[in-house]
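A quick aside before the break. I want you to see a complete sequence-to-structure record at least once, exactly as it would be stored in a machine-readable document. Don't worry about memorizing anything.
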Amino acid sequence: MTEFRIEKDSLGEVKVPADALYGAQTQRAIDNFNISDVKLPFAFVRAVALIKYCAAETNAALGVLPKNKAEAIMQAALEVFEGRWQAQFPVDVFQTGSGTSTNMNVNEVLATLASRHGNIDIHPNDDVNLGQSSNDVIPTAIQLSAARRITRKLLPALEHLIAVIETKASELDSVVKTGRTHLMDAMPLTLGQELRTWSNQVELAVERLEALLPQLRALPQGGTAIGTGINCHPDFAEQFSKRMSAFTEQPFTAAKNLFSGIAGQDIAVATAGSLSSLATVMMKISNDLRWMNSGPLSGLGEITLPTLQPGSSIMPGKVNPVVPEAVCMASAQVLGNQTTINIAGQSGNFQLNVMLPLIAYNLLQSIELMTTSAYALADQCISPLTVNTDKLAEDLARNPILVTALNPVIGYNAAAAIAKKAYQQQRSVIDVAAEETDLSRAELEQLLNPSNLTQSQG
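That is the input. The structure line, written in C-alpha cells, reads:
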C-alpha cells in the first residue's frame, strides 16, 4: 500500500507519495492533468534544471541569494541535468499552457534535494524560482533545449549523412543509369550525380537550421511574468546569458525584447518549418531508395538494400525496404508536428503563449526523429547498398530518350520518330538511328554515348 505525506501550498493540503521529491503543486498537476501518458522529453527537463543552475549562480553573484543556498540549488540542479531522478518528473504534456506545472515540478524537486544537500531550508518559489517566472523559464527552456539538441545531436547526424552519401557517390561516379522525370525514362546521369543531389539537399537543410541558431540562442530569461522583469535584478538577464554561454559553450544572449520572447513562439515555429523542410528531404531520399530497390524482378532493381528482416508473414522470401519506410513515417510525423506547432504558435494571447508544453514536446520530438533518421539512412541504407550494374546497363541501352542528343543534328520531329520506332520494336536507339539517318555508326556512337550525355554539352 502506498504511503503518503501531507504537503501544503497556497490552496491548502495535498496528499503526496511519501518518497516523492516533489511537493503539493506537482501533485495537483498529476491529479488535474490525467490527459495522456505522454511526458515532456527529459531533454526539456534537463534544460529547465540548467536554467535553475545558472539562475542560482547569477542570483548569488548579484547578492540576492545567499551563497550557501545557491550552491545547494546548483548541486541539485546538476544532478538532474546529469540524468538523475528522472522518475520525479511525471507531469503530463497536456497541462497548464504556460508550463507552470513543469516549472514547479523542477522547483520542488530541486528544493527538496538542495535542502538535503545544504542542510538548510530551501523554498521552491522564494529560492529556486528567485527572479524567475514560468512565463520566461519555459520559453527559455524551449529555445535552450532545441538549440542544444540541434547543435549536439542533429547537425552531427546530418554531417555524417552527407559524408556517407559523398563517399558512396565517389565510388559510383562512373556508373551511368537512366534518369527519370515523372517516373518515366529521361536523359542519363551517373549514380554519383544522383546521390550528390541528396547530399546537397541535406547541406542546404543544415544551412537553414544553422541560420536559425542565433535567434534560438537569444533567451527571454529575465522577463519574468510578462517581460517587464518584475522581482528580477536589472542585471540578471545579461549575466544569466553569460553564465549559460560559459556552461554550454554556445553563444547565448539576452533577447533584445523580453516581451516578444514570452508573448510569441515565432522562433519555434520557424525552427519547426526548417525541420519540416528537412523531413521532405529525408522522405525524398527514402522514396528514391525504395524505387531504385524495387523488384527484385518486376521493379526497377537498380540497387539492392541490405536484407534486415523477413518482409511478410505469409510470403516466404519476401524482403522489404523497411528502413526507408520507417524514415518516411518519421518524416510524416515531423510534418504533422509542424502543423501542431503552427497552431500552438498562434495561441499567444496578449503577453503569453499558452501552448508552450505542446510546442516543446513536438519540437524536440522532431529534432530527435530527424537525428535518428539521418543515421538510419546513412548506416543501414546508403553505405551498404550494392548496385546492380547489369540491370542499369540493360535499361540504359533500351532507353529511347537517348535520341534527345540527336535533336541538334536531325531535328526534334525526326528524333521523335526514331524514339517511337525504337520503343515499339524494343530495339536500341542507335540501331534504329543507323537505319533512319545518314549518320555513320561512329558518329552515332559518339552522339549517343551515355557517358558523354551525363556531362554538360555547353
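Two observations worth writing down. The chain has a mean pLDDT of 96. Residues 136-229+246-390 form a domain with the Fumarase C; Chain A, domain 2 fold (CATH 1.20.200.10). We'll return to this after the break.
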